Amino acid sequence: MAAAKATSGADNGDSSCRDTGGGAGGEANSVANCAAGGRVYSLDDLDTVATVGTGTFGRVFLVKDKKAKGYFALKAMKIPEVIRLKQEQHVHNEKAVLTEVNHPFLIRLFWTHHDERFLYMLMEYIAGGELFSYLRNRGRFNNSTGLFYSAEIVCAIEYLHSKEIVYRDLKPENILLDSEGHIKLTDFGFAKKLSDRTWTLCGTPEYLAPEVIQSKGHGRAVDWWALGVLIFEMLSGYPPFFDDNPFGIYQKILAGKLDFPRHLDFHVKDLIKKFLVIDRARRLGNMKNGAEDVKKHRWFKSIDWDAVPQRKLKPPIIPKVSHEGDTSNFDVYPEDEWTKEAPVPPKDLEIFKNF
Ligand SMILES: Nc1ncnc2c1ncn2[C@@H]1O[C@H](COP(=O)(O)OP(=O)(O)O)[C@@H](O)[C@H]1O
Ligand SMILES: [Mg+2]
């Protein structure tokens, strides 16, 4: 069934998730180069301990700071692969978005860097591992466990949307648990700041599309849809629309038919149905009261929403973390020929001069 990890758009050569420009671009800033209290980082100060995650063009390492002895996660992306998969704008978006945000449930970015082969992002290391692993190990979560993660995710999405950022890649692999069991969203590779163009009514009125006129929620709706899928999967153990090939999945999504396992709570079924509405103008979270409508839903009745971002809800799973640099909650990855890459020609490096 859904044992394997889902691949994001870029992984299967799907270019439908590509941006054509606009949004927060590479010029946005160079603040991250001296972020985190003005500290200046250098690759020479970092020892690689192990790989904790891999992607199409990226690999995430646990690294140890030789001087301060602390640990970080270092995401390294192969520049030729980024270019081949036309992800230049996305990596610029990833940096711009992470540089802008500051929230207890979002990963912190300390520094970005590039050399002739790789782009680097230095982040806080989250030792509890992926929510994906806990979900697959347990098969499915009970109602109160699903409720806890959903509540924290709602706060994270609400915060991002309040900053006009759409996350666009919500899934169990991108949700990490810290050592106390609270969530951290990582992987802002598809995140995007909605451009001003999306928000102001420009163009000739007679010719405007409905979604431009109803600019409230333009783009944000995708995150609420994804939350509907995620809640279904957390409580069922498999996603609502699945098939052995992407085309079959797309057909099922568009058919919009939902089969709930019998054990699901009455209110959560209602919530999921309200997220998985094809017409995004009628989708919960994307109407005029935004995230407030989600928070007021009956399934969340027991949630004290002020307590959530203060990390005051009691985590249902406490990861086993023996020390700050413990990697035992992540899969083991072969440390292959990762560094044997040819340098990138200067004209290609030019695209990343601000990274
Ligand atoms: N800050 C982090 N701390 C610990 N593990 C991380 C961190 N960021 C990413 N990872 C791990 O690396 C994996 C891949 O990173 P991600 O940013 O999702 O890359 P990709 O864009 O290739 O999917 C994640 O699914 C997660 O397991
Ligand atoms: Mg990812």
TrEMBL record:
Keywords carried by this UniProt record: ATP-binding, Kinase, Nucleotide-binding, Serine/threonine-protein kinase, Transferase
Binding site for ATP: 75
Gene giving rise to this polypeptide: PRKX
Record GO terms (molecular function): ATP binding; cAMP-dependent protein kinase activity
Organism listed in the record: Scleropages formosus
InterPro entries: AGC-kinase_C, Kinase-like_dom_sf, Prot_kinase_dom, Protein_kinase_ATP_BS, Ser/Thr_kinase_AS
Matches recorded under CDD domains: STKc_PRKX_like (cd05612)
Protein kinase domain ranges (all copies): 46-300
Statement: the UniProt record of this protein carries the keyword Transferase: yes
Ranges that cross the membrane: none
Cell division as UniProt keyword: no
Stored Pfam families: Pkinase (PF00069)
The protein's name in its UniProt record: Protein kinase cAMP-dependent X-linked catalytic subunit
One GO location term (cellular component): cytosol
Top-level taxon: Eukaryota
The family this protein is said to belong to: Belongs to the protein kinase superfamily. AGC Ser/Thr protein kinase family. cAMP subfamily.
Segments for region (Disordered): 1-22
Boundaries of every AGC-kinase C-terminal domain copy: 301-355
